[in-house]
Amino acid sequence: MSQSSRYNYKSYKPQKWGDDVYSSGIDCHDPFPMKSVVLDNLGRRVNLKKRFRGKQIVLETGSLTCPSYVANIEAMNSLADDFPEICFIVLYVREENPGDVIPSVASMEQKHDRAFFLEKLEDERRQIFADGLQGNLHKQIGTYPNLVYVIDPDGNVEYKRLWNKPGELRSHLEGSVMHRNQRRDERSVDFKTAFRVLFRAGPQALVNYIKSKPLMWKTRQE
Asked: Record's InterPro entries (predicted)?
């Protein structure tokens, strides 16, 4: 299997669930790879360090086929409204649950188009940036599908969660939670959102997701 197809897997299967596909990346207090280059909504290459120099950033990863990310959009938009001094951004990564209708991305143009279709489809109000086709930044920060990082103005990680939980993130931003590192953690997403996201990806995505559930829970409890 090529490195590209290993990252952009064609279907979500239980045997994919492991460090080969989901790595946890950097930790709290580590420098965030701010020199990374991503694409903005106009397809322009953006250096994160130059764009957000001296700013505090909340970065969340997501995709059209990630139920956890989609379930958090409304709460994250609310957080962005409540903390206007912080830059809230979304990094569009690989499809978590590729299917018949929304398969894994095959080109950078396709990935960029999906990132900004998401903006309209889900009323996403945060800035969206598309990662490289082979997950250049995603691989550095951890390849979980719905990571969240808070990055301080000096470019260091002050908070990290493998599966975003907006309520806990709010507590951190309000000063109640100092920092959090995780190697494994559970995620929570309501059935209605999961079904809606997986159904639009295609029937096979829904089947693969359901088949994977027992192993996913086993892995998170280890």
From this structure: Thioredoxin-like_sf (IPR036249)
